[in-house]
């Protein structure tokens, strides 16, 4: 049975230094996917189907939301595993930073649900109105 090796922990400050075409790291992962992991994707840049530029735009950063929003395939996720170099160190400062970012994201997208409820209400009211009108004319 192969011995499981311990992954090195990197701070956000360490990852931020790897932000060039010759040295490109990303953080991808969250609480739902086993936590934030650090990937060295330097050698993959030229092979990325979307082009190197999209990765370089988020190099040295937490790219999890970007990665998930694109809707990457299972093959892409398997390819990503080949570039794993460690995990993100979640000290108190990093946990606070991530919580703040999540709170800000929730605030900026929070208004969208209210609009959906209003639209659904209008549609229901219109459906009720037309149903009543049809019953009256029958």
TrEMBL record:
The chain crosses the membrane at residues 108-130. Keywords: Heme, Iron, Membrane, Metal-binding, Transmembrane, Transmembrane helix. Residues 7-89 form the Cytochrome b5 heme-binding domain. GO terms for molecular function: heme binding; metal ion binding. GO terms for cellular component: membrane. Pfam families: Cyt-b5. It comes from the Eukaryota. It is found in: Membrane. Its main location: membrane. InterPro entries: Cyt_B5-like_heme/steroid-bd (IPR001199), Cyt_B5-like_heme/steroid_sf (IPR036400), Cyt_B5_heme-BS (IPR018506), Cytochrome_b5 (IPR050668). Belongs to the cytochrome b5 family. This is Cytochrome b5 heme-binding domain-containing protein. It comes from Ditylum brightwellii.
């Amino acid at each position: 049975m192969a011995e499981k090796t311990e992954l090195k922990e990197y701070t956000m400050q360490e990852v931020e230094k790897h932000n060039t075409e010759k040295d490109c790291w990303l953080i991808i992962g969250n609480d739902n996917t086993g936590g934030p992991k650090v990937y060295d994707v330097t050698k993959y840049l030229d092979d990325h189907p979307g082009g190197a530029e999209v990765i370089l735009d988020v190099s040295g950063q937490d790219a999890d939301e970007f990665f998930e929003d694109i809707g990457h395939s299972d093959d892409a996720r398997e390819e990503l595993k080949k570039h794993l170099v460690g995990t993100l160190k979640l000290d108190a400062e990093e946990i606070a930073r991530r919580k703040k970012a999540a709170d800000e994201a929730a605030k900026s997208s929070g208004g969208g649900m209210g609009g959906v409820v209003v639209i659904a209400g209008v549609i229901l009211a219109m459906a009720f109105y037309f149903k009543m009108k049809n019953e009256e004319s029958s």
